[in-house]
Design goal:
Layout (H helix, E strand, L loop, with lengths): L22 H7 L3 H15 L2 E6 L2 E6 L2 H10 L1 H4 L7 H6 L13 H14 L2 H6 L1 H21 L4 E3 L1 H17 L5 H21 L6 H7 L1 H30 L16 H7 L1 E2 L4 E2 L2 H32 L1 H15 L9 H4 L3 H13 L15 E3 L2 E3 L4 E4 L1 H5 L45 H18 E4 L10 E3 L3 E3 L4 E6 L1
Parallel strand pairs: 2-8
Antiparallel strand pairs: 1-2, 3-12, 4-5, 6-7, 9-12, 10-11
The chain binds protoporphyrin IX containing FE.
Protein name: Cytochrome P450
Keywords: Heme, Iron, Membrane, Metal-binding, Monooxygenase, Oxidoreductase, Signal, Transmembrane, Transmembrane helix
Subcellular location: Membrane
Length: 490
């Protein structure tokens, strides 16, 4: 039984492979999480559910057991909800912890997180964007149709279309306007460039005073990427500010109410600790977090789910039946958002997708607010703590036939609690106080797009094609070989 006690006299830190100062720290630091995952699996088999790697300047503790995760994140959430102190490169990218995911567990974090959940993820606000979701859906359907018709075998690679659709949606929610195609691509480019190079900047943190000399060009590259991001996002923020001041805000098409977007809420916000409004560069950081956290995670999951629906036509047929039962003989080809609530099988498909293919195989690094003992080991304040999300979703003791795509496992009368409040069986959104604040929005986006994609087209493999479920890590854990499908109107 995990016992968490603060009387931790002389407890050891969790076990792990032997460590040669500096050398092993740098070796681990050079590995991506994709490389680390199989190594950690072996280490957990050898040392148990909680292990330590000496990465960089801090011990990194990894937890694979769902009950220990529950014990730490939910039952002792106040202790385990901090984030590691920022490294020098983080300070540049996160405006010194002025975004939600990197902020310490303090009043700044509470203010930023509450702003997002109460102003943008509130039920009425989410509903106010339904016109936008429909616009993005119609654009996606048109694009898929025209691209598939332009190919001789009608086959199409769908991932770029999914990414673009989700990105447009998040850009609208962020800036409150339909940004033109070229601008959307520009924002996507600067964000992608930054995130894809993050790993290569890790080494700069190891001994900043030395790396500033040794890797001067790498430091300059980091500053250049950040400047590119500001150059693209600041004009959008400024334009919004002016439109607000001049009372020229866009209204929602249906009822004429003014669109309240994420930037509007950030322009109004006051930081309680510092007693001031947000600086422009902090707004850039928060917008960037919003766009990245909300689009790539969802488009990756959508890609995995559609791949499984192509691989398992009987599951796709059951989704169609679920929709038919609710929509009936209505002629238009749109599944409306209000109707999704009455589609239990569709919901089960989404959960099964998140279980088997969580877009993040780990959560973001946590840290403890004070030294604590977990399962007999010391978790020191300077350690980072992380959880094996994908391993938990594929644990054979919890999930029968874990690698099979079987949505039926989620069809119970009592429903499934994705937040893991009572117990954790999987945690694609994390759990406890740092749980993803966007999980309801993400579920809505997934349900809405999967339902409408399946309702509009039959998804099949082209002649001689096959669905390859191998993974690789990019921004998220993506399909190594992108889905190539044949779609035909239903
Ligand atoms: C399928 C879609 C998504 C998945 C699987 C996902 C997953 C996650 C995970 C695993 C975390 C880290 C939790 C932790 O550190 O313990 C997280 C944090 C976060 N997510 Fe998501 N997310 C998704 C969509 C979204 C969306 C749509 C938004 C907003 C537009 C969003 C915003 C955030 C933010 C701001 C955080 C930081 C929370 C904090 O540190 O307090 N996510 N998400």
């Amino acid at each position: 039984r995990p016992i968490l006690s603060l009387l931790h006299t002389k407890k050891p830190i969790p076990p792990g492979p032997s460590h040669i100062p500096i050398i092993t720290s740098i070796q681990w630091l050079r590995k991506s999480f994709f490389d680390l995952e199989p190594i950690l699996r072996t280490l957990h088999a050898k040392y148990g559910p909680i292990v330590t790697l000496r990465m960089g300047s801090r011990p990194s503790i990894f937890i694979s057991d769902r009950s220990l995760a529950h014990h730490a994140l939910v039952k002792n959430g106040t202790l385990f909800s901090d984030r590691p102190k920022p490294l020098p490169t983080d300070k540049i990218l996160n405006s010194d912890q002025h975004n939600i995911n990197s902020a310490s567990y303090d009043d700044t974090w509470r203010t930023l997180r509450r702003n997002l959940t109460s102003k943008i993820f509130h039920h009425s606000s989410v509903k106010s964007f339904s016109v936008t979701r429909n616009w993005v859906l119609q654009t996606l359907l048109t694009q898929l149709k025209s691209h598939s018709q332009s190919k001789s075998d009608n086959s199409i690679k769908v991932i770029d279309h999914f990414q673009y659709a989700l990105f447009c949606l998040l850009v609208f929610m962020c800036f409150g306007e339909r940004v033109n195609d070229q601008k959307v691509k520009e924002i996507d480019r600067v964000e992608r460039n930054l995130i894809l190079s993050l790993n290569s900047f890790n080494i700069l943190n190891f001994w900043p005073s030395i790396t500033r000399v040794l890797f001067r060009q790498r430091w300059e590259e980091l500053l250049r990427l950040r400047k590119d991001q500001e150059d693209v996002l600041v004009p959008l923020i400024k334009a919004r500010k002016h439109a607000k001041e001049e009372g020229k805000l866009l209204t929602h098409g249906d009822d004429g109410s003014v669109v309240v977007c994420y930037v509007d809420t950030l322009l109004e916000l006051e930081l309680p600790l510092e007693k001031r409004k947000l600086k422009e560069e902090e707004i850039v950081t928060l917008c960037s977090e919003f766009l990245n956290a909300g689009s790539e995670t969802t488009s990756t999951t959508l890609h995995w789910i559609m791949a499984n629906l192509v691989k398992c036509p009987h599951v796709q047929e059951r989704v169609v039946e679920d929709i038919k039962r609710v929509v009936g003989e209505r002629k238009d080809k749109e599944v409306k958002e209000e109707e999704l609530q009455r589609m239990p099988y569709l919901k089960a498909v989404i959960l099964e997708g998140l279980r088997l293919h969580p877009p993040g195989h780990f959560v973001l690094p946590h840290s403890v607010t004070e030294d604590v003992v977990l399962n007999g080991y010391l978790v020191p304040k300077n350690a980072t703590v992380n959880f094996m999300v994908a391993e938990m979703g594929r644990e054979p003791k919890v999930w029968q036939d874990p690698l099979a795509f079987k949505p039926e496992r989620f069809l119970s009368d009592e429903g499934f609690d994705i937040t893991g409040t009572k117990e954790i069986k999987m945690m694609p959104f994390g759990a406890g106080r740092r749980i993803c604040p966007g999980y309801n929005l993400a579920l809505l986006h997934l349900e809405y797009f999967v339902a409408n994609l399946v309702w509009n087209f039959e998804w099949k493999l082209p002649e001689g094609g096959h669905v390859d479920l191998s993974e690789k890590q990019e921004l998220t854990w993506v399909m190594k070989n992108a889905l190539q499908v044949h779609i035909s109107p239903r």
